[in-house]
Amino acid sequence: MASFKEIKERGYLPQKNLRRLLIFGTLILIKMLITNLSLIRKLSQIPSTGKQYIRPPRRYDLPKFDKDMRYCDANEKYLRPTLYCNSHAPEIIALAHELGAYKKSDREFAKAAFEFAKRKITLEMMSLDGVEYTIRRGAGTCLHEITVFVALCRAAGIKARYKLYSLTMIQAWEDTMIVDPMVKKFQDAMGYFMIHGEGEVFLDGKWVVCDVGPTPERQAATKTPISRFGEDSIGMWLNAVPGTIMFTESLPYGLNIMMRFVQKIAPMTIDKVNKNILDEINRGKEILKEKGEENYDKEIRKSFKPKFPEPVLKKKKSIIFEK
Fold first, then answer.
1. Residue-level pLDDT at 242
2. Which residues contact 59 (CB under 8 A, 6 or more apart)?
């Protein structure tokens, strides 16, 4: 069990702006529970048709681990294991070597880790767990995907960290997530609570941003450019709410509370969202198959103009999004 000193030093405690978001989100959830009991009961019931989402097969084979494989065991900030991000896990070490750890340059390896996390991990809404489980499963949220990237870089001796923030999304991404009245009520009540993140890797004396969240197929399905290594998604398909960006060595405590709660009270809502994501991936596959990834990306970058809700600060010190 981590000591309080370790908890504080490694960033397990939420930063001030995240604490505010977590407290606000908890209060909103309590209010929604009280005022929407009948709707919540309905959403918690699994219909006779059962679940719609079936996790697709892993997109890769698990490499074999050898105890003699080299890995970074330094107890240094941004290189050591942190919450959910065990860079010493056999699955991570083996995968890092398969991707060229200690053979490629730091930049080449970071790019390989980026491409793996972006292309091989299927987005699936679920609660957080250890990075080794993500590798075995081949699926997870954007935070799982970032953790895969961060863990691989740290295993290879390259400093890596998290960049977290509240976001607003383009309409196409929102349409995937808002699947029933519960989600709509939650979004309307909380507005900007949804947390997204990117990975950052330290190369040549500076931090390089890497958004591994959306696969090329999902980006094609939503008519957005395919994000590249070193390219920030802020301003492309999402915007960060002002004042919410935070850089941290570790995912902090508290981020799991919301997802576990929603999974408990509305499992079919999560199922619908995951089914929508999978449908989106399949649509994107057909687009990329027809046009080719390079041609698609080149074409969409010429015409793409994202539209976001604009955050407007009110005197009540809350943020309201106006379209």
1. 82
2. 119, 120, 121, 122, 138
Q: Is the dihedral of CA 69, 70, 76, 79 positive or negative?
A: negative
Dist CA 15 CA 34 (whole Å) = 29
And the tokens for 40? 């919540």
* 165: its two tokens: 């923030």
Residues of the chain with pLDDT under 70: 1, 37, 39-51, 168-194, 306-323
**Whole-prediction pTM value?**
0.88
Residue 295: burial class (beta carbons within 10 Å; 0-12, 13-18, 19+): exposed
- In which residue are the tokens 């290594």 written? 229
Give whole-number Cα distances, 256 to 74, 205, 270, in Å.
28, 33, 14
Range of the domain at 102: 4-322
Instruction: Kindly report the number of other CB atoms within 10 A of residue 43's CB atom.
Output: 20
Residue-level pLDDT at 265: 76
Q: How far apart are CA 148 and CA 94, in angstroms?
A: 13
Pick the closest to residue 162 from 10, 314, 35 (CA basis). Answer: 10
Rounded to the nearest 10°, the torsion over CA 230, 235, 239, 240 is: 50
- Report the chain's terminal Cα–Cα distance, integer Å: 47
- Give the pLDDT confidence of 160-188 residue by residue, as tens digits: 999 998 876 555 555 655 555 556 665 55
Q: Which residues, 6 or more positions from 41, have their beta carbon under 8 angstroms from its beta carbon?
A: none
Helix (H, G, I), strand (E, B) or coil at 319: strand
CB 163 within 8 A of CB 251: no
- Measure the CA–CA gap between 166 and 240, rounded to whole angstroms: 6
pLDDT at residue 166, as a whole number? 81
Largest CA distance in the chain: 60
Structural domain count, the chain: 1
